[in-house]
Design goal:
By secondary structure, the protein is of the alpha/beta class. About 25% of the residues lie in helices and about 20% in strands. Strand 9 and strand 10 form a beta hairpin. The two termini are about 35 Å apart.
């Protein structure tokens, strides 16, 4: 979720060297829908009956995932965020869903989703209260884990508002251990590293990857292009990549936060850019939009099977930014499990004209003189074409991308190692 602007969301686990999550989940990046960015903490169902945080909202979104072909593409998780419970626990210390907004209870909601072959996620906070002021899990780690297992919860996002950061190493580890000890497979999502980042502390990503299935490590996404580009820049910084890129992979994913496609701020080309980057990041693909009212263009972007295949590639690698050139031109790539490479050419300029962008195959780690089959992953017609040594394509300004898949056709000379260049 997100907290309020300025507070980062989430979760995580601890630094105990003797405990590892080992739940066998998220061997590829999880996909689905998360309420926070689009619906925040809307709790007045009289004023906002369609949009308030309630069982009706989550059931209606689940129905769209089931009926509109999203589930078959991998979008199977529906995630509740903050503001779902009452402000007080019951006499047994259990969290209680607000009975006006969730009259049938969370277990009933989970059962409805399971009947549609979907999964339900829920939100908690390691502190005394959540970011929205609801009961935190401090002093109730085991009780909450047992409650969520009883309800049939499939994933748990643990935030970190109103908490002592110095206690998070141990506390988040204990929360993950409590989930495992329930005997139910529950995906564990964390943003503990971001709280450490904000506090100026060193983040031990190797330890985080031992305990979390996914983790937030940068600012909450907001419905703006500037927010999207700030996340991409953070992930592209070689110093940051060196700290978290190596631990990223099956069962343990860096999470750059939700997809905005279908919301209010992004242009069509910017929407294509966010989806392409998140797919190359091997990031969790959690939409935060209103699937009951979404444009055909947004649906087409989010249902792009070729880019989803890049996201779900078995290697699960992150991309590297090869170069940045004056005027806002960038080249990124990552290796895929079949020997191909996924590439993004990005035009951040605002000059008003498309630019012809070119890169050599050596720059992305292929051999000199190699011929590759080049496929435009956003093209809706045509076939891949063969190119030798280099490739160029016109890319629209103000955030446009060319998203490509390059598959070797012939060998060439030995490759040189790609380097990060700022020109």
């Amino acid at each position: 979720m997100g907290l309020l602007p300025g507070i980062v969301l989430c979760l995580f686990l601890g630094s105990s060297a003797t405990y590892a999550l080992e739940n066998g989940l998220a061997r590829t990046p999880p996909m689905g829908w998360l309420a926070w960015e689009r619906f925040r903490c809307l709790t007045d169902c009289k004023a906002e009956p369609k949009n308030c945080v309630s069982e009706n909202l989550f059931l209606s979104i689940a129905t769209r995932l089931h009926d509109d072909g999203w589930k078959e593409l991998g979008y199977t998780r529906v995630n509740i965020d903050d503001c779902w419970p009452l402000h007080d626990r019951d006499t047994e210390g259990k969290l209680v869903a607000d009975p006006e907004r969730f009259p049938h209870g969370i277990k009933w909601l989970a059962d409805q989703l399971h009947a549609m072959e979907l999964q339900l996620g829920i939100y908690g906070d390691y502190g005394t209260k959540t970011c929205g002021g609801y009961p935190g899990t401090m002093g109730h780690l085991r009780k909450d884990a047992e409650t969520f297992a009883e309800w049939g919860i499939d994933s748990y996002k643990l935030d970190g508002c109103n908490a002592n950061i110095s206690l998070m190493d141990e506390g988040y580890s204990e929360a993950g251990k409590a989930l495992n000890q329930t005997g139910r497979s529950i995906l564990y999502s964390c943003s503990w590293p971001d709280y450490q980042r904000i506090a100026g502390l060193r983040v031990n990503y190797k330890n985080i990857a031992t305990h979390c299935n996914l983790w937030r490590n940068f600012d909450d996404i907001q419905d703006s292009w500037d927010s999207v580009t700030s996340i991409i820049d953070y992930y592209g910084d070689p110093k940051n990549f060196a700290s978290f890129g190596a631990v990223h992979g099956p069962g343990q994913w860096n999470d750059p936060d939700m997809l905005l496609i279908g919301d209010f701020s992004l242009s069509y080309e910017q929407s294509k850019a966010q989806f392409a980057f998140w797919c190359l990041f091997s990031a969790p693909l959690f939409m935060s939009n209103d699937l009951r009212d979404i444009s055909p263009d947004a649906v087409a972007i989010l249902k792009n099977k070729k880019l989803i295949a890049v996201n779900q590639d078995a290697l699960g690698l992150m991309p590297r930014r090869v170069w940045q050139k004056k005027g806002g031109i960038e080249l990124w790539y990552k290796d895929l499990s079949d020997g191909a490479k996924a590439v993004i050419l990005w035009n951040r300029s605002n000059g008003g004209v498309a630019l012809s962008l070119e890169f050599s195959f050596e720059e992305i780690g292929f051999k000199s003189g190699m011929t590759c089959s080049v496929e435009d992953l956003y093209a809706t017609s045509g076939s891949p074409t063969n190119h030798t040594s280099s490739y160029n394509q016109y890319v629209d300004p103000s955030g446009g991308v060319a998203a490509l898949r390059l598959t070797p056709v012939t060998n060439g000379a030995a490759p040189r190692a790609p380097v990060h260049i700022v020109i």
